[in-house]
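Internal ticket - ligand job 268, S-adenosylmethionine:
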Amino acid sequence: MSEQHPEPQPDPDTPSQTPSAEVSSSDDVDRSRLFPRVTSFRFRRGTLTAGQERNWDELWPKLGQDLEIGRNRIPQPQLDLTALFGRDAPKVVEVGSGTGVSTAAMAADEPGVDVIAVEVYKPGLAQLLGLIDRGGLTNVRLIRGDAMVVLTELIAPGTLDGVRVFFPDPWPKSRHHKRRFLQSGTIELIADRLRPGGILHIATDHADYAVWIAEILATQDRDRPHVIPLTTESPLSLTRPTTKFEGRAERDGRRINEFVYTRPLQDG
Ligand SMILES: C[S@@+](CC[C@H](N)C(=O)[O-])C[C@H]1O[C@@H](n2cnc3c(N)ncnc32)[C@H](O)[C@@H]1O
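stdout (structure tokens):
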């Protein structure tokens, strides 16, 4: 887990299918090529403030881990989630935690629930470290890497109580839709990693992405791991704070669409 990650470009307005073409330093070009598949993020060099540097140096070794990247990387062993937090408690993965505003607020609201925040954007993770520190939170761990790899390799089937995907990059142009994190295969993967009764909570302010998500949720293969709309009370909090994305959406009059689904207690 020693290799440094390239920074993603979180502004999805002008995404590129070839992230390596967008970055200036040859170092980053080489690193971006280490990701062999189409990713839902793109690369950006990130600079940390002095405070974030301090958080990173002090807290990352205790709370965070970097995923190994590169063509010759070997698949990572599954995480021992109980050992990671030192207790047996419900476990939630948050995909693309950004600056961690929702992560920290929801973790503070639910001290009995453990949250694994997955993000590729180092300054965002550094901000979350600051929120964890200031809030005295003990129930958050961070992974710097591709959430697809985390779900595929690090999380065992049937082990998560929840997966949160808040304001995933919408990749609005049709030719970039393959970059959207939420695809049929991802929903099946998430369903497989949830325990029966586990919750998938998605929020988006992008109308077209909402239609896309509704479509893939409606057309799942019911013979495979899948999720269904939650019709009973949620075992996890569904209350999100207003993040910068949500605040901007509200100001621009864009509706927030939320999807709260659950893995059925019995598949099929
Ligand atoms: C639009 S931002 C939303 C951030 C946050 N969830 C919020 O509501 O403020 C989407 C975030 O997802 C991250 N992201 C996109 N694809 C990812 C992936 N495959 N693995 C980890 N993070 C990812 C991006 O780096 C970006 O920070």
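Auto-summary: Residues 8, 10, 39-41, 95-98, 102, 118-121, 124, 146-148, 166-169, 181, 243, 245 surround S-adenosylmethionine (CB under 6 Å). Confidence is low (pLDDT under 50) at residues 1-31.
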